[in-house]
Amino acid sequence: MNRRRHCSAECDSAPPPPLGQHVQDHFEVSDEVYNIIPLDKSSADHPCRRLPDVQASIAALSAVGDLPRPPFLPWKPEYDLLDWLGFHFGFQSSNVKNQREHLVLHLSNAQMRLVPPPDNIGSVDPSIIRHFCHSLLENYYNWCSYLDIKPNVYLSVTDSAISSVDQRGILYVSLYLLIWGESANLRFVPECICYIFHHMAMELNKILEGYTDEYTGMPFLSSVYGENAFLDEIVKPIYDTMKAEVDKSRNGTAPHSMWRNYDDINEYFWSRRCFKELKWPIDIGSTFFMTSSKGKKVGKTGFVEQRSFWNIFRSFHKLWIMLILFIQAAVIVAWEEEYPWEALKSVKVQVQCLTVFFSWSSMNFLKSLLDVAMQYSLVLREIKWLGVKMILKIVVSAGWIVVFGIFYGRIWDQRSSDGRWSPEVNRRMVNFLEVALVFMAPELLVLVLFILPCVGNFLENTNWRIFRLLSWWFQGRTFVGRGLKEGLTNSMKYIIFWIFVLGTKFSYSYFLQIKPMVESTKTLLHAKKVHYVWHEFFKISNQFVVGLLWLPIVCIYMMDLQIWFSIYSSFLGAIIGLFDRLGEIQNIQHLRFRFQYFASAIQFNLMPGEQLLNASGTYPSKLKAALYRLKLRCGLGKPFKKLESYQEDTYKFAMIWNEIIMTFREEDIVSDREVELLKLPESYWDIRVIQWPCVFLSNEVLLALRCAKELSDAPDKRLWSKISKNEYMRCAVIEAYDSVKHLLLTIVKYDTQEHSIVKTFFQEIDQWVHLEKFTKRYKVTSLGKIHEQVVHLLNLVLKPTKDVDEVVNALQVLYVAAIQDFTKEHRDIHQLREAGLAPRTTVSRAGFLFEKAVQLPSPDDIFYQHVRRLHTILTSKDSILKIPENHEARRWISFFSNSLFMNIPQASSTGKMMAFSVLTPYYDEEVLYSEEQLKNVNEDGISILYYLQTIYADEWRNFVERMCWEGMLYGTQKAEKDPRGEDISNLLEDNEALRVAYIDEVSKGMAENEYYSVLVKYDQKLQREVEIYRIKFPGDPLKLGEGKPENQNHAIIFTRGDAVQTIDMNQDHYFEEALKMRNLLEEFKHNHGIRKPTVLGIREHIFTGAVSAPAQFMCAQETSFVTLGQRIMANPLKIRMHYGHPDVLDRFWFLTRGGISKGSRVLNINEDIFAGFNCTLRGGNITHHEYIQFGKGRDVGLNQISVFEAKIASGSGEQLLSRDVYRLDSRLDS
Q1: How many Å apart are CA 401 and CA 286, to the nearest integer?
Q2: Which residue has the higher pLDDT, 851 or 126?
Q3: Please, what is the end-to-end C-alpha distance for the chain in angstroms?
Q4: Which of 326, 771, 894, 927 would give a disulfide with 983, using CB separation of 3.0 to 4.6 Å?
Q5: Backbone torsions φ then ψ of 1010, nearest 5 degrees
Q6: Backbone angles phi, psi at 1028, to 5 degrees
């Protein structure tokens, strides 16, 4: 039986085909098939291969030179360094082919982005190889430094050996990528890959340096040699061990302490004992590979996940200590019923407040006991020194309780002896405080290091023994979680924020919660002979009642910190949003005021920076452009310019804007009529001003006519000054005038005397306007009548069935109004003929005026679009707030236009942008609904189609209008196959860049199956789906961990570029937002704090909020979390520790640190949260950006929402017991 599970590496992904169908029957394989760029010998003439950067990359990989050839195999001239490594270390040929393209694309893209361009375009710049080697092997270097071992990467450069260094660098990165590309589930254990690479790099060095085997005298051979040797001898034994451990979990029902997860396997390689026990070549008999309950074996490593409510205290013990110490001190001070500063003057109160140190040391003692209870299995199995540390912690914490008890008792003994608060008592108080200072010394040291983060980071990353010992004692020395502190500026912002939050919380708690309870508590405690209806637990006092009275107060006190955090987050988030210029354009009315500057904003933000700088070759022009950008970034002055019709930028802007509007039409969120109102028209008539969208010119001509009527006796300059104050009114008047002129000159035949009359009439008007004597020459009050006649003419021209005679009559009436009624000076027929405004012949000879001079264009001519636009400008009175009608369309336009005025990085050119892939995991979701599915009714008689028609009535009308216009129907499905598979096939065929990666299970008989990761595409040349890569797994990759992380893990080897974007099947992207992806990717080049980002968070919009009341609730919940919450967590707090979908990740950073998700079964239910934890613990930087957004669909039914919330709750519970949360609590704010 043949089984498939699917996941996409480039965009979406595909569902399974019918069972029993072998992959070769469905996907045909050809030697000519390639993924993105052909690299076989026969494709040398391919256009991509002609690019100098690609040729340089291929040449770099082909530079085998005099490297020792692999034995037992014939060497061919076309083989390159990847083939050389594949033969020497037993990698799969498809893996070699995959990584060859991977390297060529990366090196080529890096070469293209070099500024200035390299002198020798025929070879890869050495800096690219060294930088790539450093970034790809950074985690390996850190691992070697942590274990205090020497890396097996030798790149010492001398001028005479640069080429050999480049070759070595390529070999090292190629070796790492080949190991990573074939490691299957081992990609979740990055330090295991470091261990493998360390030894294989050592063997590579021996081969390069010409070592000979000491036993045979032959040239040195790697310990992993032969066909699929790496998979069979390295990957499979470790995979089998992982699988055996997962089997022990009983599908996640067994306690975590009973089996090793991915983290346990990985943390085994955080100790140098892996070199002693595992050895190289790998010793299969090592205790690492033992999984049975009998005999010595490697157990949990570094941490044991235990299900217990005590994790709430253990993982967040610092927060609990702070809250308990404050409420204890607050009750003591409030008991005096005075202001705190008055109460603290009392020596008795001061002495009583010293009891907080008892509570502090007691809670440390409790923490030590919990450490033993939770982590005892580590001591029993492997780490003896951990047991010593636990015992010492218990002894020390218990010792502090005793010490505080002794010194505190001495204070009261002296008080009893003296009978008063004598100087001797004060001296003993000072002794107690001296002891307390010693107790707090570690905390004070941590505080100093928190204020000086650079010092703290240095000490945590150093390998000096004294600091390693201190780290081991206070935090536990681990490979991750070192050097996490932010820069001084960010640390101070973080401290100030929490000073306000905690100050407000503690003030509120003291004055409004604790202090009002004191009087009633004293009254109850002093009350005697109180008889209760219920059972009396305490016969002598009312302590039980007091406890019940304080219980809700204490509960609220313990929980209301989150409320105060939310309040301050909202307040601070609103301020940050204000300074980020969010929401300045909230509707079409606001957009109307900014639209004049749109072209300049688009040019500045979306056009490549190099093009703007180099538009003029002189240095002054470059300096001016640079200052222009700085001016915009700092918000100084008005850096944006108005649009003008003659500017080239106007045409570029019109092209982008119209494409956006057309995508709205394809989405059916605007109608055909709204498209005409929103588009910038193509240049058809010679209009002197920019032709704004009609929606912005609504009512402007009518207002101008009213203004002209009011100022009929005013001079031209005053009237025109009043009109020109409104840019849209000015443009509407000029466009209306020019359009009417061109309209009349178009419908009146060119070689007629009527055409000459019309032309002369407008020339005369232009002359008087130029002389600024228009109001003296013409009756401005008559413009209203002319307006009516022009509108009547337009109505006749736009009628579906056009009557030329009616058009002629309308022209005659318009002629009379313009010639006789419009001018102030009456002219007879002779004067009109002399001026060229009347026919030279009499009416009886030539017929009526315009009778034979009118000719209308054909009905499909673009002429009528411009006539409709003119008619709209002259007649429209609609409010622009109603256009477009669809709420989503208005929101898309508003957000996009607003984002262009925000502070965003400038986009690079497409050739120099950072390359990225989009990864969409797919399981069994519906991709496309068939007509049958849409029309099928449920038990309530409601179909999906009816539901959509009801909820989105306006979009349905637009859809029907579009379908009728284009004459289209629903696409037919391939009924004989799985419909979802056919849907994906259609997507592959329609989208050339789409790739589908899936796991293929092939039966080999005798219950033996083989598993492959396969990448396919639709070949436009061959007109069929073809298989590109097929990489074998050591076993079923989806059986070891959570489904989604495993799905992503198998497909990520087929991704390309420096970044990868994670998008789920329930998400959407918009064309206008995609234009800003180049801007977003530029964020990777800039520091955010002291580090460059590794995850770029993106704003999300929930588009399913209108479906139901629960959906609206989910929408509000998500909006709160992904806007205000994420905004302040990323800046200024720098505590955003998760990545969401559709965030963009630094691909090479993540692929060397365990991948984009953590996949341990059951534990990592919320894989993205844990990936964020992992990113933070490994020194990553997660940011959040709100100038770009993606759409997201959320659950709309109550049952679906309940399931989702249950998943979130379960994931939160697993987080509490995880090592990630414990380590974050131990190392942050510490």
Answers
A1: 45
A2: 126
A3: 56
A4: 927
A5: -115, 145
A6: -100, -55
